[in-house]
Amino acid sequence: MKQAMILPPATIGILGGGQLGMYLALAAKQFGYKVVVLEPDPLCPAKRAADIHICKKYDDQKALEELAQHADVITTEFENVPASTVDYLNQFKPVYPQANSLLIAQNRGKEKSFFRSCGLLTAGFVLISHIQDCHNVKTEMFPAILKTTTMGYDGKGQVKVMQASQLEDAYIQLAHPECILEKMVSLQHEVSVIVARNQTGSNTFPVIENHHRNGILDISYIPAAIAPELIIQAEQAAHLLAEKLDYIGLLTIEFFITTDGKLLVNEIAPRPHNSGHITLDTSLTSQFEQQLRAVCGLNLGSTVLKKNGAMLNLLGDVWLDPALNPFEIMINEHPDTKLYLYGKTQAKSGRKMGHLNICNDSRKKLEEQIKQLKNSLKIDDL
Ligand SMILES: Nc1ncnc2c1ncn2[C@@H]1O[C@H](COP(=O)(O)OP(=O)(O)O)[C@@H](O)[C@H]1O
Ligand SMILES: [Mg+2]
């Protein structure tokens, strides 16, 4: 891999303008870089931290030329950037990660086949691309989850299918030409590993333990409370996947740990990850600074933990209760937490509005604090 070193005050181009782009832009600013963001939403969080916001679509050729003119290197915070966009930009400026990795991460079928080709385990799966396929699935696949192969996130584009007779209805309900049917696995834990890789080498953050609520990430703990051999396996798998993709940038791998102790790869995100927000406070280098270092060809920062920590996601639901003033509660009642809000003007159920980070070396204390936070913000513990 041949990569140019991009030094400040160069300009970092970011495809996508969500909160991940906002924190990447802030990390870039901290190092003295300038930032240009391409994102069609005029109210996007990242524009608040960027020098330039090009408010155009990802397939707008003029906008891409403008982005390439300003930027010295381009990266992404959003995995559904069309591969053709990346290929077009690549004629002018380096883009990391490259289109091959995006194409895999954008399609659950390609993703799972890629994991297996690397010798890693996944949940059992079968592709459903025609109604006829619904009738050829073995009964041992059930209970299962039918997922659209593309565009799904936060549990969207998924339906549980308890038995074979329900599959056809589920496929019709999803109304998506290509779906993947995954055998439901019995989960002991869900964990993520964030790996960075560039010409200088690769490293991982400590394994993060994730707890979901209604298919959306709710709480993350770093480090994960799992067996040491699983930690080694997860880290090795992360390095292997980054290497097989010849990846440059930051890559997140989501894993399932089954009740019988197996590590299965679930999916990858070619970008920083919601679970990695905790690194803003627990780690010498945050996931965003690491992405910046990776795409600029700089030495990667230390991922050593200063403190153990936990993150609680703040979804729009918290703002929808008229009897609650979440900002006042967080500021006045929880001075020992670090509050992050993304500046989104409209709260919607399930929309990620911000998060809270807490640091403590005692896992028991972290769990107690999360419980108190949830109580005062009236977030049900499911
Ligand atoms: N095969 C499965 N077995 C058990 N639980 C699953 C399975 N697939 C998904 N889930 C649950 O649903 C959540 C969201 O699914 P995921 O495949 O990660 O899609 P998304 O892109 O929406 O995050 C997972 O974090 C996990 O809790
Ligand atoms: Mg997921």
Arithmetic mean pLDDT: 97
What is the domain tally? Answer: 3
CATH class identity of the largest domain: Alpha Beta
**Percent of sequence in beta strands:** 25-35%
CATH homology superfamily name of the largest domain = ATP-grasp fold, B domain
Helix coverage percent of residues?
A: 25-40%
Q: Which class of secondary structure composition applies to the elements?
A: alpha+beta
Q: What is the rounded Rg? A: 21 Å
Global outline: globular
Roughly how many Å apart are the termini?
Answer: 47 Å
Number of strands: 17
User: Which spans of ≥5 residues are poorly predicted at pLDDT below 50?
Assistant: none
> What order do the helices and strands follow?
EHEEHEHHHEEEHEEEEEHEEHHEHHEEH
So, CATH architecture of the largest domain? 2-Layer Sandwich
The CATH topology of the largest domain is D-amino Acid Aminotransferase, Chain A, domain 1
How many distinct helices? 12
Q: Hetero groups bound?
A: adenosine-5'-diphosphate, magnesium ion
The main sheet comes to: 9 strands, antiparallel
